[in-house]
Amino acid sequence: MVALGYRRFRFLVPVRTLGAQEFRSPFLQRLKPLIKIIYRLEGVIELPPEEHDDRSLPEKLRGMLVALHEGEVAAIFPEGQLWKEREPPIGEFAPGVVYLHKKSRAPVVPIAIWLSERRWPRHRCVVEFGEPVRIPEDLDQDTGAAWLRERVLKLYEQAKQKEGK
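Above: the chain sequence. Below: its structure as tokens.
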């Protein structure tokens, strides 16, 4: 969100984000108290702990669904995690984003981020926003997730092409 121009950013604030409660990295484990403070200040909706991962999708996403019903803007990483692989550039989408869309009727704004491999003097980052979409009603959660992923992959390619300009 920081990469957005002020006018766009202002329309999205506050953005409710879905965040993990547990961190695998020892570094992040040490920063957990600070992360919790940032979560509280920023209105992050926390996923249940991984040991309670047997909870259903509606239970896991209840907080996000409430926020959407209240008209708030929600950001979700549809891969279910921060995707770090170069190939494929976008992972398979989890069904959560489709579930939220179908239950809230909120449009989905696909966003793709392309990050250059160049490290010096700094990375180049291109953020591409798609038009708001509605996932076709006749698609189930898995097919709907694949449909949405295809749109994001197209945006990713557009962002990658802009890197040379």
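The beta strands are 15-19, 45-46, 73-75, 111-115, 125-129.
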